[in-house]
Amino acid sequence: MAESAGGGAIPGIQSSSTEDDGITITQLQVQNEQGSKAIGKVIGNYVTIEVPALRNQDTGLQDRVATHFAKHFEAFLQRIGVGKTANVLIVGLGNWNVTPDALGPLVVENVMVTRHFFELMPDQVAPGYRAVSAVAPGVLGITGIESSEIVRGIADRTKPDVIIAIDALASKSLERVNTTIQIADIGIHPGSGIGNKRKGLTKDILGVPVIAIGVPTVVYASTIVNSAFDLMQSHMKANKADNDQVFGLINSMDENERLLLVKEVLNPIGHDLLVTPKEVDQFIEDIANIIASGLNAALHDAVDTDNVAAYTH
Amino acid sequence: MAESAGGGAIPGIQSSSTEDDGITITQLQVQNEQGSKAIGKVIGNYVTIEVPALRNQDTGLQDRVATHFAKHFEAFLQRIGVGKTANVLIVGLGNWNVTPDALGPLVVENVMVTRHFFELMPDQVAPGYRAVSAVAPGVLGITGIESSEIVRGIADRTKPDVIIAIDALASKSLERVNTTIQIADIGIHPGSGIGNKRKGLTKDILGVPVIAIGVPTVVYASTIVNSAFDLMQSHMKANKADNDQVFGLINSMDENERLLLVKEVLNPIGHDLLVTPKEVDQFIEDIANIIASGLNAALHDAVDTDNVAAYTH
Amino acid sequence: MAESAGGGAIPGIQSSSTEDDGITITQLQVQNEQGSKAIGKVIGNYVTIEVPALRNQDTGLQDRVATHFAKHFEAFLQRIGVGKTANVLIVGLGNWNVTPDALGPLVVENVMVTRHFFELMPDQVAPGYRAVSAVAPGVLGITGIESSEIVRGIADRTKPDVIIAIDALASKSLERVNTTIQIADIGIHPGSGIGNKRKGLTKDILGVPVIAIGVPTVVYASTIVNSAFDLMQSHMKANKADNDQVFGLINSMDENERLLLVKEVLNPIGHDLLVTPKEVDQFIEDIANIIASGLNAALHDAVDTDNVAAYTH
Amino acid sequence: MAESAGGGAIPGIQSSSTEDDGITITQLQVQNEQGSKAIGKVIGNYVTIEVPALRNQDTGLQDRVATHFAKHFEAFLQRIGVGKTANVLIVGLGNWNVTPDALGPLVVENVMVTRHFFELMPDQVAPGYRAVSAVAPGVLGITGIESSEIVRGIADRTKPDVIIAIDALASKSLERVNTTIQIADIGIHPGSGIGNKRKGLTKDILGVPVIAIGVPTVVYASTIVNSAFDLMQSHMKANKADNDQVFGLINSMDENERLLLVKEVLNPIGHDLLVTPKEVDQFIEDIANIIASGLNAALHDAVDTDNVAAYTH
Predict the structure, then answer these.
(1) Nearest by CB: D281 against A97, A221, A279
(2) Environment class of residue B80 by beta-carbon count within 10 Å: exposed (0-12), middle (13-18) or buried (19+)?
């Protein structure tokens, strides 16, 4: 396991990263406005778990990812000041009828809920557990209600100390689809996620901290095309080609400029679809199990962090 | 179509019933305490739709039941003072992982929701529709939260004028299982339904009228046995047998006494199971479609009551 | 663990039974026509695993049952002369759309198949495995073809040495529903199982031995009623009651006579339904996992019999 | 409705095409080796139904496509000499656990099977029907048996006069994914379809004609990129740009050359994934319903071609 800590390079940004046999974990802290502007991210704490081989359906690797997720999530909670007895409401965002958007609801189905034991027989709960509840609020087309409104109503009545929201995301590159888990304490903002949310889930709205767990599960066709240009340019360069000659003016465009061009071409003719890998059913199930197992171990001391998978059904 | 109205026989009770080729619809009004005591039902309005052949998977019959449901539900709303523009929240109670308890969530999946159109583009909604939203709050074992708490939180934020709650019930006889739909304006009370609810959904708690739609989908083994005694006694009687001789002391017991005896025998050895017909998957799907179609037609004038099935997916 | 071997009591019948903390395993050999007539079973080898607490959703117990199943199934194969390298075709009978009939197809989904490795890269298969294939032939209403015809066609082309057929059964008592696993080398006969099979799966038809694994998953209402009479009579007797007085003429009927009477009463009015416990979804999944895990361990030496669950997904 | 017939332009090729409000139907006949070489298709009869708007979830359009499918499939059967009483075996290829590969099995679940009525009560079958059976043979990873072996075994026993095989395909362009239905009388060849079939389903192997119904449901990332180049070049050209200047040497590559380059870059780093649109669950269900409805109407005169959807569940 290799570790590299970087800090101070960019003012207002602290970051460090760890690697363990195919699993790269990066911690990032955006400390102030200066840092925020520098890297284009909201002030807050971020952890990213990258596992390029996660699509290989290797259950050994999945168990290791779940264990890493658990350890880092537990540390994350501590870092942002969420105590060991804080009540947690887990929110699985997304549409359970659309496989690549069903990640959140699937985590909710598999996570261990305990709040009712604390409510009904508080004296009999074994030590090492905290009160956890979990809901999948559905999407506007199924319920007719913004998911944020549903969560707010439930939070008003159940008074959690912290909310953990799981959401499927549109990826910024094909390689990140179903290989990356992102954790941040910045909440869920309108327009993030696959569904078109109009209202966010944030501390401002809900009154308690909101931790977002996001997994890219779909990608725009235009993103695939744009990434391919990059890859082809690198490939050519590695082969000593003159990329100005090979790619013409395209070579002189920067990434965003080129993406806009691609979108401009694909979009009007309905070609800029959101797509997901063919094996999406299995990928979503695997990642939902990793997150559910990891949350169980991170949230309850009584669940063993080193063998998290055994506690999930 | 035959109709029979009865009234005045029992003070405080008004009832009438209609029959249409295998579909019997009974309206009952319990007007005061006197009537309530006389028949052991809470004060309120009741409609029961009985269709003994509903388990035959006859789609023609199902369409007719949906149409009757729509007409009677529409009249029921009017009778209890729910206007044509009243906002409706449909609540599908029960556990979607337990087929005979999944009726409510299935109705929610199939019902037409419109509230978001009224919220997002009120000027563009065609006439003949009202704002309808729908949620399946799940059960305690999945969410860690009482379903009534979830509904209350959502109702607090979305302010419906009336709540319609669909729930699967334990039947008082095998023949009613998956053949009967019960409508009442008395809400959902703790202990009703298949799941062990500890808190109800009532006007007292939620501040708005709560209409319950209940369908018996399971029955206790003891109920089957107890009904069988009745049937055997009638059978013997019809064959001129002396039932005291045939059934001994059992014959002199009244129904409740006998049920207690049966329960006393079956319960301690784990034989008093709740059971459901083998074909439960199909039955639940059929009835959920009937109710969803019927609600769509009853709630929206723009949906044609005479051909309700076409509007449901 | 207690063991009791009985033999010689009935000529042509050998039997022995083992008990291990809630799991009772009975071996029975019907050796000849005399034995067959005496107990009303076809000549053959039988193993029955009875676990009254199997409906309690206790995963520890389920793992123990899977381990016992594996050990006894392995011994059973040896006893009837099926060698360690014999090719196996697993057949999951039943209708995957009817939960209590979906046991066989679910086992097929969860069992480890290996035949294709032996076909495509015979030199690279690790030792300790044999060639196993698995199919769910569906039911007449879905395919239009008798399941036995489908199996026969597949067996003709793939030439298995032995066929293992899993089927859901109608139970002879409520207590056996989803608590009992029956193994026998007598094949599947017409009319057994939940679906109305018209043709069997037997050595005569298929040319290779057919081992049946049956699990009662449904029960007739009349069976529930008939069992209840027995239980009530025992209960009364234990309380020193005079059962002739309590039950009248019913008390003098033998079990079959009484069952006929119950059926005569319930059947004409459509009350003799096949029913299944409310929690059928979970029960079927649990038992399918036990059988799939057990088969994996019994069929492949490389799969550890003491920890069978880990090999099943 | 516009029709255009082309013929004679290429020797050995006859083609004609019809357009009806967003539905384009092309008939193609490859008559001999000369024609086959000219356009790179096996000798045979082809019908392609293209509906660019099919992903819009417009049920009216879907019904119209089903009706067109039914009419053209019926004519196709007649053209290739399959009579009105020919027995049909419908084969749904693919993996039911992988949504974009589940098209075939879904059609099998929804199609009307009648063969058992002809077998069990031939005198009572109403006129206007023929014997139809249907199976989903699964994939190698689930059964351990080549699907072609399973089909061959079943065909040997049930003796159909013709086999109709439905399969999901990898698309040659993103725009064809879930918008196109292809019919051909050339059977299924190894390597076609999403799964890696090693043996085909052809008249040579099965002894009866095999009609393939294929729907592109996935597309390679490299195909998306390659198509994008075309689209960008057309776009630039339309804007009077000098494409040699804009695209450099890329502009001088032909389509296949460029595709090879893209694959060479994406493949080694695992970027040449097969992808499918995010809404794959709904798309597959819609198309399976279209094909099942269309087959029901095309195969049975008693099912009305003009309102095919009503006969499918």
Answers:
(1) A97
(2) middle
* Spatial CA neighbour of D150 closest among C70, C138, A68: C138
pLDDT in tens, chain B (313 residues): 445 555 558 899 999 999 999 999 999 999 999 999 999 999 999 999 999 999 998 999 999 999 999 999 999 999 999 999 999 999 999 999 999 999 999 999 999 999 999 999 999 999 999 999 999 999 999 999 999 999 999 999 999 999 999 999 999 888 899 999 999 999 998 766 776 666 889 999 999 999 999 999 999 999 999 888 888 888 888 888 888 887 788 888 888 888 888 888 888 877 889 999 999 999 999 999 999 999 999 999 999 866 666 555 4
**Residue contact A135–B140, C-beta within 8 A:** no
| pLDDT, tens digit, 9 for 90 and up, residues C162-186 | 999 999 999 988 889 999 999 999 9
Chain D: residue nearest C153 by CA? D153
**Rounded to a whole number, what is the distance in Å from the CA of D174 to chain A's nearest CA?**
7
Q: Is D247 on the interface with A (CB under 8 A)?
A: yes
- Which of B88, B135, B146, B152 is the mutation pick for testing A, counting most A CBs within 10 A? B135
Predicted TM-score of the model (pTM): 0.93
Q: In chain B, where does the domain assigned CATH 3.40.50.1450 lie?
A: 42-222+274-311
Question: In Å, how far is C134's CA from the nearest CA of chain B?
Answer: 25
Of D116, D150, D198, the CB nearest to C135: D150
**Contact at CB, A158 and B149, closer than 8 angstroms:** yes
CA distance A274 to chain D (A): 6
Window 7-36 of D, Cβ < 8 Å to A: none
Q: What is the pLDDT of residues A107-126, one digit of tens each?
A: 999 999 999 999 999 999 99
**Which residues are CB-neighbours of B29 under 8 A, at least 6 positions away?**
B13, B14, B15, B44, B45, B46
Residue labelled with tokens 């209708």:
C95
Interface of B with C in 166-185 (CB under 8 A): 174-175
For C261, how many CA atoms within 13 A lie in the half-sphere containing its CB? 24
Chains that touch A (3 or more CB pairs under 8 A): B, D
- The DSSP element (H or E) to which A230 belongs, if any, is helix A221-238
Contact across the interface for B141 and A109, Cβ inside 8 Å: no
Interface of D with C in 91-120 (CB under 8 A): 97, 108-109, 113-116, 120
Give pLDDT, residue A304: 80
Q: Which two tokens stand for residue D251?
A: 């502009």
Chain D neighbours among A 264-293 (CB < 8 Å)? 264-266, 269-271, 273-282
The two beta strands, C88-92 and C210-220, are unpaired
- What's the CATH class of domain B42-222+274-311? alpha beta
CA dist D191 to A25, B143, D95, D103, D223, Å? 39, 46, 15, 17, 17
Asked if D52 reaches chain A (Cβ–Cβ under 8 Å), the answer is yes
Taking Cα atoms as reference points, which of B151, C193, B139, D95 lies closest to residue A157? B151
Q: Are A98 and D249 in contact (CB < 8 Å)?
A: no
Q: Are strands C274-277 and C210-220 parallel, antiparallel or unpaired?
A: antiparallel
Query: Which class for A25: exposed (0-12), middle (13-18), buried (19 or more C-beta within 10 A)?
Result: buried
CB distance D194–A278 less than 8 Å? yes
Rounded distance between C-alpha atoms, residue B273 and residue B279, angstroms: 17
Residues D211 and D163 sit within 8 Å (Cβ to Cβ): yes
- DSSP tag of D112: P
User: Hey, what are A162's tokens?
Assistant: 């912290």
Q: CB-based burial of residue D196 (10 Å sphere; 0-12 exposed, 13-18 middle, 19+ buried)?
A: exposed
C166 residue type, one letter:
I
